[in-house]
Design goal:
This protein is α/β, with parallel strands linked by helices. It has 3 domains: 87 residues, Rossmann fold, CATH 3.40.50; 195 residues, 3-Layer(aba) Sandwich (UDP-N-acetylmuramoyl-L-alanine:D-glutamate ligase); 136 residues, Alpha-Beta Complex (Protein-Tyrosine Phosphatase, Chain A). It contains 15 helices and 20 strands. The strands form 4 sheets. The chain has a 6-stranded parallel sheet. Strands 15-16-20-17-18-19 form a 6-stranded mixed sheet, with helices on both faces. A 5-stranded parallel sheet has the order 3-2-1-4-5. The longest helix is centred in the middle third of the chain and has 16 residues. The N and C termini lie far apart (54 Å).
Length: 439
Protein backbone atom coordinates (compact mmCIF):
# COMPACT_ATOMS: atom_id res chain seq x y z
CA UNK A 1 0.00 0.00 0.00
CA UNK A 2 1.31 3.41 -0.97
CA UNK A 3 0.82 6.54 1.13
CA UNK A 4 1.36 9.47 -1.21
CA UNK A 5 0.21 11.95 1.43
CA UNK A 6 3.38 11.12 3.39
CA UNK A 7 5.77 11.69 0.53
CA UNK A 8 7.76 14.94 0.41
CA UNK A 9 6.33 16.03 3.77
CA UNK A 10 8.25 17.20 6.80
CA UNK A 11 7.36 14.53 9.36
CA UNK A 12 8.04 14.62 13.09
CA UNK A 13 7.90 11.67 15.47
CA UNK A 14 6.97 13.00 18.89
CA UNK A 15 8.70 10.83 21.51
CA UNK A 16 10.96 7.94 20.65
CA UNK A 17 9.65 5.18 22.89
CA UNK A 18 8.36 1.82 21.70
CA UNK A 19 5.66 3.43 19.54
CA UNK A 20 8.01 6.06 18.15
CA UNK A 21 10.57 3.44 17.12
CA UNK A 22 7.84 1.45 15.42
CA UNK A 23 6.65 4.54 13.54
CA UNK A 24 10.17 5.33 12.32
CA UNK A 25 10.63 1.76 11.06
CA UNK A 26 7.28 1.97 9.27
CA UNK A 27 8.10 5.29 7.59
CA UNK A 28 11.48 4.03 6.40
CA UNK A 29 9.81 0.93 4.92
CA UNK A 30 7.55 3.28 2.96
CA UNK A 31 10.74 4.80 1.54
CA UNK A 32 10.09 8.16 3.13
CA UNK A 33 13.24 10.24 2.64
CA UNK A 34 15.04 10.01 6.00
CA UNK A 35 16.05 13.67 5.76
CA UNK A 36 12.34 14.55 5.96
CA UNK A 37 11.96 12.83 9.34
CA UNK A 38 12.73 14.47 12.68
CA UNK A 39 12.57 12.76 16.07
CA UNK A 40 11.46 14.97 18.96
CA UNK A 41 12.13 13.81 22.50
CA UNK A 42 13.34 15.53 25.65
CA UNK A 43 15.33 12.40 26.58
CA UNK A 44 18.57 11.15 24.95
CA UNK A 45 17.83 9.17 21.79
CA UNK A 46 19.54 5.96 20.69
CA UNK A 47 18.57 4.89 17.16
CA UNK A 48 19.69 1.36 17.96
CA UNK A 49 19.29 -0.99 14.99
CA UNK A 50 17.80 1.61 12.64
CA UNK A 51 19.75 1.56 9.39
CA UNK A 52 19.05 4.05 6.63
CA UNK A 53 21.10 5.97 4.03
CA UNK A 54 20.74 9.16 6.03
CA UNK A 55 19.97 9.33 9.73
CA UNK A 56 16.82 11.26 10.63
CA UNK A 57 17.20 14.58 12.36
CA UNK A 58 17.04 14.47 16.15
CA UNK A 59 15.89 17.32 18.33
CA UNK A 60 16.15 16.74 22.06
CA UNK A 61 16.39 18.59 25.32
CA UNK A 62 14.06 21.01 27.02
CA UNK A 63 13.20 22.90 23.81
CA UNK A 64 12.11 19.83 21.81
CA UNK A 65 8.56 21.19 21.41
CA UNK A 66 9.63 24.47 19.85
CA UNK A 67 8.71 25.23 16.23
CA UNK A 68 6.20 22.39 15.85
CA UNK A 69 4.45 24.48 13.23
CA UNK A 70 7.37 23.79 10.85
CA UNK A 71 6.24 20.18 10.35
CA UNK A 72 3.51 18.98 7.98
CA UNK A 73 2.66 15.78 9.88
CA UNK A 74 3.41 14.93 13.53
CA UNK A 75 3.13 11.32 14.68
CA UNK A 76 2.35 11.71 18.38
CA UNK A 77 2.82 8.81 20.79
CA UNK A 78 -0.46 8.18 22.56
CA UNK A 79 0.96 8.61 26.06
CA UNK A 80 2.05 12.23 25.54
CA UNK A 81 -0.37 14.70 27.15
CA UNK A 82 -1.84 17.52 25.08
CA UNK A 83 0.26 20.41 26.34
CA UNK A 84 -0.49 23.96 25.08
CA UNK A 85 2.36 23.70 22.56
CA UNK A 86 0.95 20.45 21.16
CA UNK A 87 -2.64 21.73 21.14
CA UNK A 88 -1.57 24.60 18.89
CA UNK A 89 -0.72 22.13 16.09
CA UNK A 90 -3.53 19.64 16.69
CA UNK A 91 -4.55 19.69 13.01
CA UNK A 92 -1.11 18.24 12.15
CA UNK A 93 -1.23 15.43 14.75
CA UNK A 94 -1.87 11.77 14.13
CA UNK A 95 -1.30 8.74 16.34
CA UNK A 96 -0.14 5.35 15.12
CA UNK A 97 -3.48 3.83 16.14
CA UNK A 98 -5.39 6.49 14.18
CA UNK A 99 -3.21 5.77 11.13
CA UNK A 100 -4.03 2.07 11.51
CA UNK A 101 -7.78 2.66 11.65
CA UNK A 102 -7.58 5.05 8.70
CA UNK A 103 -5.91 2.50 6.43
CA UNK A 104 -6.51 -1.09 7.60
CA UNK A 105 -8.67 -3.05 5.15
CA UNK A 106 -9.71 -5.94 7.41
CA UNK A 107 -12.00 -6.43 10.41
CA UNK A 108 -11.18 -4.90 13.80
CA UNK A 109 -12.33 -5.98 17.25
CA UNK A 110 -11.48 -3.19 19.71
CA UNK A 111 -11.54 -3.53 23.50
CA UNK A 112 -11.09 -1.23 26.46
CA UNK A 113 -11.78 -1.14 30.21
CA UNK A 114 -10.23 0.26 33.36
CA UNK A 115 -9.66 -3.24 34.66
CA UNK A 116 -9.48 -6.50 32.74
CA UNK A 117 -8.96 -5.18 29.21
CA UNK A 118 -5.78 -7.18 28.65
CA UNK A 119 -7.40 -10.42 29.78
CA UNK A 120 -10.46 -9.75 27.61
CA UNK A 121 -8.25 -8.87 24.64
CA UNK A 122 -6.19 -12.03 25.08
CA UNK A 123 -9.34 -14.14 25.41
CA UNK A 124 -10.87 -12.60 22.28
CA UNK A 125 -7.65 -13.25 20.35
CA UNK A 126 -7.49 -16.85 21.54
CA UNK A 127 -11.16 -17.39 20.65
CA UNK A 128 -10.58 -16.31 17.06
CA UNK A 129 -7.44 -18.44 16.86
CA UNK A 130 -9.33 -21.47 18.10
CA UNK A 131 -12.05 -20.76 15.54
CA UNK A 132 -9.45 -20.89 12.77
CA UNK A 133 -9.77 -17.24 11.81
CA UNK A 134 -6.73 -15.23 10.59
CA UNK A 135 -6.11 -12.89 13.51
CA UNK A 136 -3.43 -10.55 14.88
CA UNK A 137 -3.12 -9.26 18.46
CA UNK A 138 -2.14 -5.59 18.72
CA UNK A 139 -2.43 -2.24 20.47
CA UNK A 140 -1.80 -1.56 24.14
CA UNK A 141 -0.86 -5.23 24.55
CA UNK A 142 2.29 -6.55 22.92
CA UNK A 143 3.93 -4.86 19.95
CA UNK A 144 2.74 -1.62 18.32
CA UNK A 145 0.13 -2.21 15.67
CA UNK A 146 2.20 -1.09 12.66
CA UNK A 147 4.89 -3.63 13.60
CA UNK A 148 2.49 -6.50 13.02
CA UNK A 149 -0.39 -5.69 10.71
CA UNK A 150 -0.51 -5.82 6.91
CA UNK A 151 -2.74 -2.82 6.24
CA UNK A 152 -3.81 -4.28 2.86
CA UNK A 153 -5.09 -7.54 4.36
CA UNK A 154 -8.84 -7.54 3.62
CA UNK A 155 -9.55 -11.01 5.00
CA UNK A 156 -7.89 -10.83 8.42
CA UNK A 157 -8.99 -9.77 11.88
CA UNK A 158 -7.12 -7.55 14.33
CA UNK A 159 -7.96 -7.75 18.03
CA UNK A 160 -6.70 -4.50 19.50
CA UNK A 161 -6.53 -3.30 23.10
CA UNK A 162 -7.04 0.45 23.38
CA UNK A 163 -6.08 2.60 26.35
CA UNK A 164 -7.86 5.83 27.25
CA UNK A 165 -4.80 7.66 25.87
CA UNK A 166 -5.23 5.94 22.50
CA UNK A 167 -8.96 6.62 22.50
CA UNK A 168 -8.69 10.28 23.50
CA UNK A 169 -8.97 11.68 19.95
CA UNK A 170 -9.67 8.49 17.98
CA UNK A 171 -12.05 8.40 15.01
CA UNK A 172 -12.70 4.95 13.62
CA UNK A 173 -14.85 2.43 11.82
CA UNK A 174 -14.63 -1.19 12.95
CA UNK A 175 -16.57 -4.42 13.34
CA UNK A 176 -16.96 -4.95 17.11
CA UNK A 177 -16.14 -2.79 20.14
CA UNK A 178 -16.19 -3.97 23.76
CA UNK A 179 -16.38 -1.62 26.75
CA UNK A 180 -15.76 -3.35 30.08
CA UNK A 181 -15.62 -2.16 33.67
CA UNK A 182 -14.81 1.48 34.43
CA UNK A 183 -13.04 2.99 37.44
CA UNK A 184 -11.58 6.49 37.98
CA UNK A 185 -7.96 6.11 36.86
CA UNK A 186 -5.52 8.29 34.87
CA UNK A 187 -7.24 11.42 36.13
CA UNK A 188 -3.85 13.13 36.39
CA UNK A 189 -3.63 12.83 32.60
CA UNK A 190 -7.26 13.43 31.63
CA UNK A 191 -7.91 16.15 34.20
CA UNK A 192 -11.35 14.93 35.26
CA UNK A 193 -13.57 11.86 35.35
CA UNK A 194 -15.74 13.49 32.70
CA UNK A 195 -12.80 13.66 30.28
CA UNK A 196 -11.77 10.09 31.09
CA UNK A 197 -15.29 8.80 30.37
CA UNK A 198 -15.42 10.79 27.15
CA UNK A 199 -12.20 9.12 26.00
CA UNK A 200 -13.45 5.64 26.90
CA UNK A 201 -16.80 6.25 25.18
CA UNK A 202 -14.98 6.90 21.89
CA UNK A 203 -14.63 3.14 21.49
CA UNK A 204 -18.39 2.88 20.91
CA UNK A 205 -18.42 5.26 17.92
CA UNK A 206 -18.18 3.87 14.42
CA UNK A 207 -18.72 0.22 15.41
CA UNK A 208 -21.03 -2.20 13.62
CA UNK A 209 -21.59 -3.94 16.98
CA UNK A 210 -21.05 -2.72 20.54
CA UNK A 211 -20.76 -4.91 23.63
CA UNK A 212 -20.99 -3.10 26.98
CA UNK A 213 -21.07 -4.29 30.58
CA UNK A 214 -24.49 -3.61 32.04
CA UNK A 215 -22.90 -2.18 35.20
CA UNK A 216 -20.82 0.27 33.10
CA UNK A 217 -23.83 1.40 31.10
CA UNK A 218 -25.99 1.84 34.20
CA UNK A 219 -23.38 3.72 36.27
CA UNK A 220 -21.66 5.91 33.70
CA UNK A 221 -23.78 6.11 30.56
CA UNK A 222 -27.39 5.63 31.74
CA UNK A 223 -28.90 7.98 29.16
CA UNK A 224 -26.53 7.31 26.28
CA UNK A 225 -28.07 6.08 23.04
CA UNK A 226 -25.56 3.43 21.96
CA UNK A 227 -26.13 1.97 18.51
CA UNK A 228 -26.06 -1.77 17.80
CA UNK A 229 -25.77 -2.51 21.53
CA UNK A 230 -25.45 -5.87 23.28
CA UNK A 231 -25.45 -5.67 27.07
CA UNK A 232 -23.73 -8.39 29.08
CA UNK A 233 -23.32 -9.09 32.77
CA UNK A 234 -25.75 -8.70 35.64
CA UNK A 235 -29.39 -8.37 34.67
CA UNK A 236 -28.89 -9.38 31.02
CA UNK A 237 -29.36 -12.63 29.11
CA UNK A 238 -25.56 -13.08 28.87
CA UNK A 239 -24.65 -13.55 32.49
CA UNK A 240 -23.71 -16.01 35.24
CA UNK A 241 -24.69 -17.12 38.71
CA UNK A 242 -22.74 -18.97 41.40
CA UNK A 243 -22.44 -22.10 39.28
CA UNK A 244 -23.17 -21.50 35.59
CA UNK A 245 -22.65 -19.14 32.68
CA UNK A 246 -25.70 -18.42 30.53
CA UNK A 247 -26.62 -16.96 27.14
CA UNK A 248 -30.28 -16.48 26.25
CA UNK A 249 -31.29 -18.56 29.26
CA UNK A 250 -29.21 -21.54 28.12
CA UNK A 251 -26.53 -23.04 30.39
CA UNK A 252 -23.17 -22.94 28.62
CA UNK A 253 -20.58 -24.17 31.12
CA UNK A 254 -19.85 -24.25 34.84
CA UNK A 255 -17.85 -21.83 36.93
CA UNK A 256 -15.61 -24.68 38.10
CA UNK A 257 -14.39 -25.24 34.54
CA UNK A 258 -12.79 -21.77 34.38
CA UNK A 259 -9.16 -21.33 35.46
CA UNK A 260 -9.18 -17.52 35.69
CA UNK A 261 -9.19 -16.00 39.16
CA UNK A 262 -11.26 -13.04 40.29
CA UNK A 263 -14.86 -11.91 40.15
CA UNK A 264 -13.96 -9.25 37.57
CA UNK A 265 -12.59 -11.90 35.21
CA UNK A 266 -15.78 -13.92 35.47
CA UNK A 267 -17.77 -10.91 34.26
CA UNK A 268 -15.17 -10.29 31.55
CA UNK A 269 -16.01 -13.75 30.21
CA UNK A 270 -19.59 -12.64 29.56
CA UNK A 271 -18.28 -10.13 27.00
CA UNK A 272 -16.40 -12.90 25.21
CA UNK A 273 -19.59 -14.99 25.13
CA UNK A 274 -21.34 -12.03 23.48
CA UNK A 275 -18.47 -11.69 20.98
CA UNK A 276 -18.72 -15.37 20.05
CA UNK A 277 -22.42 -14.93 19.33
CA UNK A 278 -21.84 -11.89 17.10
CA UNK A 279 -19.09 -13.68 15.15
CA UNK A 280 -21.19 -16.87 15.04
CA UNK A 281 -18.39 -18.95 16.55
CA UNK A 282 -19.51 -22.42 17.52
CA UNK A 283 -20.36 -22.85 21.20
CA UNK A 284 -18.01 -25.83 21.52
CA UNK A 285 -15.07 -23.70 20.39
CA UNK A 286 -16.05 -20.95 22.86
CA UNK A 287 -16.19 -23.41 25.77
CA UNK A 288 -12.86 -24.95 24.73
CA UNK A 289 -11.20 -21.52 24.69
CA UNK A 290 -12.54 -20.51 28.10
CA UNK A 291 -11.70 -23.86 29.74
CA UNK A 292 -8.10 -23.80 28.52
CA UNK A 293 -7.32 -20.12 29.13
CA UNK A 294 -5.26 -19.27 32.21
CA UNK A 295 -3.75 -16.06 33.57
CA UNK A 296 -2.07 -13.55 31.26
CA UNK A 297 1.49 -12.70 32.25
CA UNK A 298 1.67 -10.24 35.19
CA UNK A 299 -2.11 -10.55 35.82
CA UNK A 300 -2.78 -12.55 38.97
CA UNK A 301 -0.08 -14.92 37.75
CA UNK A 302 1.12 -17.55 40.19
CA UNK A 303 4.90 -17.38 39.86
CA UNK A 304 6.31 -19.86 42.33
CA UNK A 305 5.67 -21.75 45.54
CA UNK A 306 8.71 -21.76 47.78
CA UNK A 307 8.82 -23.16 51.31
CA UNK A 308 5.02 -23.16 51.33
CA UNK A 309 4.69 -19.49 50.27
CA UNK A 310 2.77 -18.73 47.05
CA UNK A 311 4.16 -15.72 45.16
CA UNK A 312 1.68 -13.96 42.84
CA UNK A 313 2.59 -11.39 40.19
CA UNK A 314 -0.19 -8.86 39.57
CA UNK A 315 2.11 -6.13 38.26
CA UNK A 316 -0.55 -4.94 35.79
CA UNK A 317 -2.62 -3.65 38.74
CA UNK A 318 -1.65 0.00 38.66
CA UNK A 319 -4.76 1.49 40.26
CA UNK A 320 -6.32 1.07 43.73
CA UNK A 321 -9.39 -0.60 42.20
CA UNK A 322 -7.24 -3.22 40.46
CA UNK A 323 -5.53 -4.09 43.74
CA UNK A 324 -8.91 -4.36 45.49
CA UNK A 325 -9.99 -6.81 42.76
CA UNK A 326 -6.80 -8.84 43.29
CA UNK A 327 -7.40 -9.02 47.06
CA UNK A 328 -11.01 -10.05 46.45
CA UNK A 329 -9.81 -12.79 44.10
CA UNK A 330 -7.21 -14.26 46.47
CA UNK A 331 -9.15 -13.74 49.68
CA UNK A 332 -7.61 -13.86 53.12
CA UNK A 333 -4.69 -15.97 51.96
CA UNK A 334 -2.69 -12.80 51.24
CA UNK A 335 -0.22 -12.26 54.08
CA UNK A 336 2.24 -9.88 52.36
CA UNK A 337 1.30 -7.14 49.89
CA UNK A 338 3.61 -5.00 47.72
CA UNK A 339 2.20 -1.46 47.21
CA UNK A 340 3.24 1.97 45.97
CA UNK A 341 4.74 3.86 43.07
CA UNK A 342 4.05 7.17 41.38
CA UNK A 343 2.36 9.60 43.76
CA UNK A 344 -0.26 10.81 41.26
CA UNK A 345 -3.90 11.74 41.67
CA UNK A 346 -5.00 8.45 43.23
CA UNK A 347 -7.50 8.07 46.03
CA UNK A 348 -6.19 5.19 48.13
CA UNK A 349 -8.95 5.38 50.76
CA UNK A 350 -11.03 2.44 49.49
CA UNK A 351 -7.98 0.28 48.96
CA UNK A 352 -6.63 1.05 52.43
CA UNK A 353 -9.99 0.08 53.94
CA UNK A 354 -9.86 -3.18 51.96
CA UNK A 355 -6.36 -3.87 53.30
CA UNK A 356 -7.54 -3.23 56.85
CA UNK A 357 -10.35 -5.78 56.42
CA UNK A 358 -7.93 -8.43 55.16
CA UNK A 359 -5.59 -10.74 57.03
CA UNK A 360 -2.49 -8.99 55.65
CA UNK A 361 0.34 -8.75 58.17
CA UNK A 362 3.24 -7.43 56.05
CA UNK A 363 3.52 -4.54 53.61
CA UNK A 364 6.26 -3.62 51.17
CA UNK A 365 5.89 0.07 50.24
CA UNK A 366 7.64 1.53 47.20
CA UNK A 367 8.26 5.25 46.57
CA UNK A 368 6.84 7.76 46.02
CA UNK A 369 3.37 6.90 47.33
CA UNK A 370 4.49 4.41 50.00
CA UNK A 371 4.57 7.02 52.82
CA UNK A 372 1.15 8.31 51.72
CA UNK A 373 -0.33 4.83 52.00
CA UNK A 374 1.24 4.25 55.43
CA UNK A 375 -0.16 7.56 56.66
CA UNK A 376 -3.66 6.54 55.54
CA UNK A 377 -3.34 3.32 57.55
CA UNK A 378 -3.24 5.40 60.73
CA UNK A 379 -2.18 3.58 63.87
CA UNK A 380 -1.37 0.04 62.82
CA UNK A 381 0.52 -3.11 63.66
CA UNK A 382 1.68 -3.97 60.14
CA UNK A 383 5.23 -5.11 59.57
CA UNK A 384 6.37 -2.57 56.95
CA UNK A 385 9.39 -2.30 54.67
CA UNK A 386 10.01 0.91 52.72
CA UNK A 387 12.27 0.16 49.77
CA UNK A 388 12.90 0.78 46.08
CA UNK A 389 14.87 -2.47 45.70
CA UNK A 390 12.98 -5.56 44.46
CA UNK A 391 15.55 -8.00 45.81
CA UNK A 392 15.17 -6.54 49.29
CA UNK A 393 11.38 -6.56 48.90
CA UNK A 394 11.22 -10.23 47.91
CA UNK A 395 13.65 -11.23 50.68
CA UNK A 396 11.41 -9.42 53.18
CA UNK A 397 8.34 -11.25 51.85
CA UNK A 398 10.08 -14.61 52.08
CA UNK A 399 11.24 -13.93 55.64
CA UNK A 400 7.87 -12.84 57.03
CA UNK A 401 5.11 -14.47 54.95
CA UNK A 402 3.61 -17.46 56.74
CA UNK A 403 3.81 -20.86 55.00
CA UNK A 404 0.53 -21.63 53.29
CA UNK A 405 -0.07 -17.93 52.63
CA UNK A 406 0.46 -15.57 49.67
CA UNK A 407 2.92 -12.77 48.89
CA UNK A 408 1.24 -10.53 46.31
CA UNK A 409 2.77 -7.88 44.03
CA UNK A 410 -0.15 -5.57 43.24
CA UNK A 411 1.05 -2.01 43.69
CA UNK A 412 -2.19 0.02 43.17
CA UNK A 413 -0.31 2.69 41.21
CA UNK A 414 2.13 2.88 38.27
CA UNK A 415 5.74 2.39 39.28
CA UNK A 416 7.50 4.82 36.96
CA UNK A 417 9.16 6.24 40.07
CA UNK A 418 11.25 3.05 40.21
CA UNK A 419 10.79 1.05 36.97
CA UNK A 420 10.06 1.97 33.35
CA UNK A 421 6.77 0.02 33.19
CA UNK A 422 4.74 -2.71 34.87
CA UNK A 423 6.42 -5.40 32.75
CA UNK A 424 9.89 -4.51 34.01
CA UNK A 425 8.54 -4.47 37.58
CA UNK A 426 6.81 -7.84 37.16
CA UNK A 427 9.76 -9.45 35.38
CA UNK A 428 12.12 -8.35 38.14
CA UNK A 429 9.73 -9.66 40.79
CA UNK A 430 9.60 -13.05 39.07
CA UNK A 431 13.37 -13.19 38.68
CA UNK A 432 13.96 -12.43 42.37
CA UNK A 433 11.31 -14.93 43.49
CA UNK A 434 12.74 -17.74 41.38
CA UNK A 435 16.25 -17.01 42.69
CA UNK A 436 15.03 -17.89 46.16
CA UNK A 437 15.11 -21.52 45.14
CA UNK A 438 18.74 -21.33 44.02
CA UNK A 439 20.19 -19.17 46.78
Amino acid sequence: MQFPHLQDKKIAILWYGREGKSTLQFLLKQEIVPANITILDKNPIDLGDIKSPLPPFIKGGSDYLQNLENYDIIFKSAGIPYTPEIQQVKEKLITQVQFFFDHYQGKVIALTASKGKTTMTSLAYQLLLDAGLPVTLAGNIGKPVLDQVDLEDKDGYVVIELSSFMLETLHKKNLVSILGSIFPVHLDRHGSMENYLKAKANILKGSEYNIVFSSTKEQYFPDAQIEHLTLCGKGTNITRDENYFYAGGKQLFTRSEIKLLGEHNLWNISAIVALAQILKIDEKILVQTLKNFSAVRHRLEKVWTFKGIDFYDDAISTSPYSTIAALDALGDQVDTLFLGGVDGRYDFASMVERVKKSQIANLVLFPDSGPTIEKLLGEHSYNILHTRDMQEAVAFAYKYTKPGKIALLSTATPSFSVWKDFEEKGDLFQQRVKKLGTS
